[in-house]
Amino acid sequence: MNSLSAAAWIGLLAAIVQIAFVIWYGGRTRPLTAAERSDFFRLLHQHGLDRDDPELLTALQQLLAADDGREFVMVNLIRYRAKAAYPEGYAYDDSAVAADRRYARAFFPWLLRYGNFPLFIARRSGTFIEPAGAEPWQVVAMIRYRSRRDFVRSVTAVAGRDVMVHKWAAIETTHVFPVQPLFSFVAVRLVAALVFAVTAAGSWLFFG
Fold first, then answer.
1. Taking a C-beta distance cutoff of 8 angstroms, is the pair 186, 115 a contact?
2. Per-domain residue ranges for the chain?
3. Yes or no: is domain 71-179 CATH 3.30.70.100?
4. Would you say the C-alpha torsion 45, 48, 54, 59 has a positive or negative sign?
């Protein structure tokens, strides 16, 4: 393989990786159908989640009913328990932070599989403007979802795997809501395209 063919191969590889990334990253698809929503809630019923937390079930119904097929960001405001509260039969320590880490290790691979990933996770470092009676949130997490369909896919993948038990053992209370970014410096598609373009150009300069 001569130097010119090496540059060509690197450029081709960069193009293939760019295409694969764009397909994985997604961000626009058709909204969930009524049948897909019904299948999802049937699965939750099979695992008893509708009986364990009917308010969460109602919130999920509202979230999925508003599906427009586009990517969104889920904002999570979290306050941990003083001690992890596992149901009887689970032999874990009582650290709420450790319980949350178990949840993250188990769930995040399924997020990534469907084009979802954490954009931002931060721990509270002080106070500033705070209305009376506001929850003392300890952690803020922003999770990017490729679509509500991919949100459903991620949740479906861990249903019955004893993953969510770690989340609820760790969390005392939480406020979770979806947002649509109006403006952001985090232009993931543009950054990825630039990285691949620079890689391809660099290969031509180096091997050309």
1. no
2. 71-179
3. yes
4. negative
